[in-house]
Structures are given as C-alpha cells and as structure tokens.
Amino acid sequence: MKDRLLPVGIAGLGSYAPQRVLTNAELAQMVETSDEWIFQRTGIRERRVAAEGEDSGAMGTLAALRAIENAGLEPGDLDLILCATTTPDKPFPSTACRIQDRIGAKRAGGFDLNSACSGFIFALNTAAQFIRTGLKKRVLVIGTETLSRLIDYEDRNTCVLFGDGAGAMVLTPLEDAGRGEYLGGSIHADGGKDDVLEVPAGGSSLPASLETVRNRQHYMVMGGNKVYRFAVSTFVRLVREALEPYGYEELGRIVPHQVNQRIIESALERLDLPKEAAFTNIHKYGNTSAASVPMAFDEAYREGKLPEGKLVCSVAFGAGLSWGHFLLRW
Ligand SMILES: CC(C)(COP(=O)(O)OP(=O)(O)OC[C@H]1O[C@@H](n2cnc3c(N)ncnc32)[C@H](O)[C@@H]1OP(=O)(O)O)[C@@H](O)C(=O)NCCC(=O)NCCS
C-alpha cells in the first residue's frame, strides 16, 4: 500500500499582513506595560491589526492569491481549500467557502479547521493525505487570523502578545511542485486542559448574551505561565521526534509557531541548537496563531533561509491543548 502513496511537495507560498502597525509604545498608552517589558519577555516590538471591515477571509484571500501565483497556477486549478482559523468570518458559512468565491476557485471544495495555534500544521498534514492517496491533486492550505477581534485591550496579559495576518501554501504531487517534499507530521491533543487558553463565550456552551458581553467573556483568557512551560517542553519533544530518523546534521531550519522569542530560544538551548537554527519574525507580527507558521515560512523562503536539500521542520502548540509538526525536505 505504502508504495502507492504519492510523494507530496510545496508548490507555492504566500502571505499577507495588514497595514496598520500597533507598536509596544502604543500599547503602553492603553495598559500598564512598557516596550522594554514586552520586548524582554516576548521578543515582540510590534504587531499588525486588521482594518475595519478587513476580516480573516479577506486576508486569507490575499495570501492565497500570492501562493497560487508563486505555484504558477490559476485559482481554477485548485481541487480543495483548507482554511485553518480560530477567528472565522462568521460561525458559518466556512471562511474556506468565502475564500473559494473571492479567488474564483470554481472547481474546489473547501472547509475550515480550528485548532488554534496548531491549526495550520494540522491543515497541512490533512492536505498532504489527500494528495498522497491520489484523491486530490492541488490543495490550497491557508492560516488566517483576526485575533485583534478576540483581544481585550484592557488585559495586559494577552493584548501585548497577539496580532493579525494570513499565510498560505499550495500542495501538489512532488513531481509537479519540484520542492519541499513532505516527509510526515503529527497531530496531538490533550483536551483536559481547555481552560489554559480559551474564549469562554460565543459558542454553543455559553452563547452570546448581554451578560456575557458585560462580563467580557468574548475575549481570550490565558494562563501565561502554564502555556509557557507546555510550549517549551513540547517544542523540544516534537523536534527531537521529527529529526530522530535523520540526525541533526540534516537540519536546514526550524520554522516554528511564532509563540514567544523566549520560548523559542529556551527550546533551542535545550536542543543544543544555535539561535539561528530557527527562523523568527515575531518581533514584527507577534503571535498570529494559525497564520504564524505560513507567514514565517513565506518570509524565510523569500529571504533564502530555507537551505536546499535540507530538512525544514515546523512545530506548533496552542489551545486545546493541541500540538503537532510537519517535516519537509526543501
Ligand atoms: C505571558 C508571558 C509573556 C508572561 O511572562 P512571564 O515572565 O511569565 O510573566 P508573569 O506572568 O510571571 O508575570 C510577571 C509579572 O509581570 C506582570 N505582567 C504581565 N503582563 C505584563 C505586561 N504586559 N506588562 C507589564 N507587566 C506585565 C505580571 O502581572 C506579573 O506581575 P507581579 O509579579 O506583580 O504579579 C509568558 O508567560 C508567555 O509568553 N507565556 C506564553 C504565552 C503564549 O505564548 N500564549 C500563546 C500560546 S499559542
């Protein structure tokens, strides 16, 4: 059976960040914090915020069009669209359907996938299976987030960390893509820790009411320290497991979820890897949840930071709790 699975590759990459920059200095006028505190604890200098009326679908559309162009394809060539987002445009229809219409991908089916910060990793692993089995040929995978709409700008624990943006990749059979061979990945969860990072209201368990709005329950809440420890140990474990069959000398770059510069550096230290082993752009965008891996990937690619023929590993972790990885040979 295994012999009949088709090798999968990354045919195209693209990303989009909204224009509006929100600096640490501006946040310091909104809550009790400082540029120094935020930068030292997180590595973030600024993040982007979507304009009024600019939603996850709009940003995902722009990232998608760039990835499709980079793949040398037309939207009409796509068979399937997977959209990872925790901030969909509406409860339904899916943001994938809205993007399908906006880009004019007439032949493609599509659906959303929500696993918070691990969303893009899970969506890419899912997309790869469709191609490996021959069920679909050209799959667009998007990570897009408008986290600014879930953030309480009176809560300094969370408002300094997150930003908006979108990233996308087009996956095809390797023989068409010619690069970025998908070597495998993982999808994990521990749903017993759902209160570490959550938006309490707005879903079926606590629908919107005057009271939920009054109690500010539509905003993200986070146990920062618990997430910190979970993220460092999970990062280390995922990279070790992914590289075990190959050896560290094969590693070209880690493109991790842009969670926090300190988390990334502390994990690298434990792995005995230099700072440069990981690509980061968190100083510019903060944590953009499901958009962070494809945004960082696209930037690393454009800056020539993905060494040809070497392994590139992406790891992510987030609400759920959930965590996972994918491994490519670039
Ligand atoms: C949130 C985070 C940056 C806080 O850093 P930390 O070093 O753990 O800081 P602590 O939570 O221990 O807080 C230390 C102090 O700083 C204060 N503080 C918290 N946020 C602050 C802010 N934005 N500005 C200034 N002070 C702040 C706290 O109130 C606390 O004060 P106290 O000692 O008087 O109680 C860190 O825990 C983190 O990055 N966690 C992971 C979060 C994350 O990535 N979530 C998404 C996962 S996908």
Describe the overall structure:
The protein is of the alpha/beta class and 330 residues long. The chain folds into 2 domains: 2-178, Peroxisomal Thiolase, Chain A, domain 1 (3-Layer(aba) Sandwich); 182-329, Peroxisomal Thiolase, Chain A, domain 1 (3-Layer(aba) Sandwich). Helices cover 34% and strands 24% of the residues. It has 12 helices and 13 strands. The strands form 4 sheets. A 5-stranded mixed beta sheet has the order 1-7-6-4-5, with helices on both faces. A 4-stranded mixed beta sheet has the order 8-13-12-11, with helices on both faces. Helix 3 (56-70) crosses helix 4 (95-103) and helix 9 packs across helix 10 (261-270). It is globular. It starts with 7 loop residues before the first strand and ends with a strand. The model has no long low-confidence stretch (mean pLDDT 96). Bound molecules: coenzyme A. Coenzyme A binds next to helix 2, helix 6 and helix 9.
Would you summarize the structure shown here?
The protein is an alpha/beta fold and 330 residues long. It contains 12 helices and 13 strands. Helix 3 (56-70) crosses helix 4 and helix 9 (224-243) crosses helix 10 (261-270).
Secondary-structure map with pairings?
Layout: E1 8-16, E2 20-23, H1 24-30, H2 35-42, E3 46-49, H3 56-70, E4 80-84, H4 95-103, E5 109-113, H5 119-132, E6 139-146, H6 156-159, E7 164-173, H7 174-177, E8 181-189, E9 197-198, H8 210-214, E10 221-222, H9 224-243, E11 251-254, H10 261-270, H11 282-285, H12 292-302, E12 311-318, E13 322-329
Parallel strand pairs: 4-5, 4-6, 11-12
Antiparallel strand pairs: 1-7, 2-3, 6-7, 8-13, 9-10, 12-13
The chain binds coenzyme A (COA).
